[in-house]
Write a structure and sequence with these properties.
By secondary structure, the protein is an alpha+beta fold. It has four domains: about 120 residues, no CATH class; about 100 residues, 2-Layer Sandwich (Beta-Lactamase); about 55 residues, Signal transduction histidine kinase, dimerisation/phosphotransfer (DHp) domain (Helix Hairpins, Orthogonal Bundle); about 140 residues, Histidine kinase-like ATPase, C-terminal domain (Heat Shock Protein 90, 2-Layer Sandwich). Helices cover about 55% and strands about 15% of the residues. The chain contains ten helices and eleven strands. A five-stranded mixed beta sheet has the order 6-8-9-11-10. The two termini are about 65 Å apart.
Length: about 475
């Protein structure tokens, strides 16, 4: 029924022009009384117009009607279909043949031009599909753009792409959508797996989808299937990459924790064994061994604390209990406690005037300063200098801790804040957790931390704490 409803107006137009144009040619010929050759030219123009406006069959019908009109109105005896002269009959037959050939050739040329234009449109559409499917955009947006391109190219009333890869279907409708037109659905599948469905519809009164339309839509569905399969494979690759990274991080954690736990435990065991074995009789030597046990116990405690803090970061439980306090007082407490660890270097502190108090968790900021100072001492040469500068920064405080060690290359200054990362200059020293935990704490305070070069040739860790600010969103730590 839909095909008849749409084809009837076209058939009516073709029949109308096949009748009207020869009639107009006859009226003009009767009005101006041209010769037989001039009248034939008018009827040829009518045939050409009918072939252009109505197609092949309209042109052929106009050829026959023009033949009859030329015979009736302009061939003696006029007003009848009888032909007295043989040459007039030959001329009429030649006219009929020429008119039919002209109508056929013109209709075929127009059809070829229309077919070429259609192929060009289809090629552009498929090229757009291929380009769009490879674009670095979200899959939902790409599918929506593809549905819109199909809607415009094929003059559809609706285009819908349903797939399990997206939560909602990509669906677009024409502004003047008329419901009730012909619909067609094409599977989106690859390798025998069905990934979705492409559904298209035309406005009411349009013809059903032809063979050429079906070929184009199946090609578009195949292109969409390739994009969906690629998106699925990308997810598989990304999952595999994440799994590999997690595995590497777990291996790094195991290796780091094993090494860093064994070292202080070995020192503690050796010292205690020497004392219990009775081989130590000098009180001074015994005191040194006990001091070693104390230092290694503190070191072990700090390592366990870092691991616990990392677990808290992963669980999202790193919430500072803020109170208004002085960073200078926290620094003094840290320097006093780390006196033995900093004995091999000199520490010079500089506090700029006008240093404000800030909202902070003193325990967590204590840990940040502890980690940064231990890190600076670990990479400073014996007798080197560590410089700590506290200065006002905007409405908060800036802390700069510089050392005279080997420094951090520019390409590693962001990587050193990743868990378990130890740069080329680390030489296997440290667990790779201190800077990562320091960054997490600083961000929980709404601040920033970065690594810079030092004028003395080493590295400088810069911490900026605002007077009070919401925490910066934490990146997930594996």
């Amino acid at each position: 029924m839909l095909r008849v409803m749409r084809s009837s107006p076209r058939s009516f137009r073709a029949a109308l022009v096949a009748v009207v144009l020869p009639a107009i040619a006859a009226v003009l010929g009767r009005a101006f009384q041209p010769s037989g050759e001039a009248a034939a030219s008018l009827f040829i123009l009518a045939v050409v117009g009918a072939a252009i406006l109505g197609g092949l069959w309209s042109g052929l019908a106009a050829s026959i009607l023009s033949f009859l009109g030329l015979n009736y109105f302009f061939t003696p005896p006029r007003g009848t279909f009888r032909v007295d002269k043989e040459q007039d009959l030959v001329a009429l037959m030649v006219f009929l043949v020429v008119a039919g050939v002209v109508a056929s050739l013109l209709a075929r040329a127009l059809e070829e031009r229309s077919r070429a234009a259609r192929r060009e449109r289809e090629a552009r559409l498929l090229q757009f599909f291929a380009t769009k499917l490879l674009a670095p955009e979200p899959l939902e947006r790409r599918l929506q753009d593809l549905a819109g391109a199909l809607l415009q190219a094929l003059e559809l009333s609706r285009c819908e792409i349903r797939t399990t890869a997206t939560q909602a279907p990509a669906s677009v409708r024409a502004p003047t959508d008329v419901e009730g037109g012909p619909e067609a659905s094409f599977p989106i599948e690859t390798g025998g797996d069905r990934l979705g469905t492409l559904t298209v519809a035309r406005p009411l009164g349009d013809p059903v989808f032809g063979v050429a339309d079906e070929h184009l839509l199946r090609a578009c569905a195949a292109q969409i299937a390739i994009a969906l399969e690629r998106a699925r494979l990308d997810e598989v690759v990304e999952d595999a990459r994440l799994a590999s990274e997690v595995s590497q991080l777990r291996a790094a954690l195991f290796s780091s924790v094993t090494h860093d736990l064994r070292t202080p435990l070995a020192s503690i065991k050796a010292s205690v064994t020497s004392i219990l074995g009775g081989g130590v009789r000098d009180p001074q030597q015994e005191r040194e061994l006990l001091q070693t046990v104390l230092e290694e116990t503190d070191r072990l405690n700090r390592l366990v604390g870092n691991i616990v803090d990392l677990a808290r970061i992963r669980a999202g439980a790193l919430v500072p209990a803020k109170e208004l306090g002085s960073v200078e007082e926290v620094l003094e407490s840290v320097l006093h406690r780390l006196g033995p660890q900093l004995a091999s270097v000199s520490v010079r502190t500089l506090v700029r005037p006008g240093l404000p108090d800030v909202m902070m968790d003193p325990v967590q900021i204590d840990q940040v300063l502890t980690n940064l100072l231990e890190n600076a001492a670990r990479f400073s040469p014996p007798g080197g200098e560590i410089q700590v500068v506290l200065a006002p920064w905007r409405d908060g405080v800036q802390i700069r801790i510089s050392d005279q060690g080997p420094g951090v290359p520019p390409e590693e200054r962001e990587l050193v804040f990743e868990p378990f990362y130890r740069g080329r200059s680390a030489g296997g020293r440290g667990s790779g957790l201190g800077l990562a935990i320091a960054r997490a704490i600083v961000r929980a305070h709404g601040g920033r931390i970065r690594m810079e070069g030092s004028p003395a040739g080493g590295a400088a860790a810069v911490v900026e704490l605002p007077a009070d600010a919401p925490p910066i969103p934490q990146e997930p730590v594996p």
